[in-house]
Design goal:
Layout (H helix, E strand, L loop, with lengths): L2 H19 L2 H11 L1 H25 L14 H23 L23 H14 L5 H28 L1 H9 L11 H7 L2 H22 L2
Length: about 220
């Protein structure tokens, strides 16, 4: 099978199981049957059982297939990627430090700091990270792999919104109305940036530097 097609099929399996198991009707049935701790364990194991082979297939077929675009390598492209990855790591760190009210285990519903930037910092951080890697990697297998992060991130965030609106239509609707879906598109973005914890920013930037330093040894150039 073509490696790019295999990657796409694995992404489809990941998305269908990830969102299917968290859909209102099926999730409620499984939680009632298994209990919440066992449900979370099964949910995580199924996700890992698909995601690990997905990563394995990609790294075994990195840069495979037709080259769809080729941006000139240089300072401009390099620093664009660095800035995007840095922003992505800051969003992910902020989302983990203060979970979204839309998450399975909801966090503080107050729309402040990172939630003035996007109400789905974890999803959007992963999507931004993938977009940054698509710029210098235009091969078909790379598009299938990193494009999957973007697609699953956007669809997953939309799915979270729909599920949460159905469960908590009042409080979540208010939070949703005051927070942007896509990052850096809301009117309060600058306020959110000023409210970010210095520790969160330092961790995000530190991770960017650390990953860049070990990138060649761990993932290749």
């Amino acid at each position: 099978m073509d490696p790019s097609l295999k990657i796409v099929l694995l992404w489809l399996a990941f998305a269908l199981t990830h969102m299917g198991l968290s859909s209102l009707r099926l999730r409620r049935l499984l939680v009632d049957t298994l209990g919440m701790p066992l449900f979370r364990l099964v949910y995580s194991l199924i996700s890992l059982a698909i995601f690990v082979p997905l990563v394995w297939v990609y790294f075994a077929n990195k840069h495979a297939g037709l080259e769809l675009w080729l941006l000139p390598r240089g300072t401009a492209l390099t620093w664009t990627v660095y800035v995007l990855v840095g922003a992505a790591f800051v969003l992910v760190t902020a989302g983990l430090a203060n979970p979204s009210p839309a998450a399975v285990v909801p966090g503080d519903p107050a729309p402040r700091a990172v939630y003035r930037i996007t109400r789905h910092p974890l999803f959007m951080g992963l999507a931004l990270f993938a977009l940054a890697h698509l710029l210098p990697n235009g091969w078909r297998a790379d598009l299938a792999f990193f494009g999957g992060f973007v697609a699953v991130g956007l669809i997953g965030a939309w799915h979270q919104d729909r599920r949460k609106l159905a469960v908590e239509p009042g409080s979540f609707a208010e939070f949703r109305a005051g927070t942007p879906f896509l990052p850096f598109t809301g009117r309060q973005t600058l306020t959110g940036l000023r409210e970010l914890s210095p520790t969160v920013v330092a961790v995000g930037i530190g991770l960017t530097i650390l990953v860049r330093y070990f990138h060649r040894n761990l993932f290749g150039p």
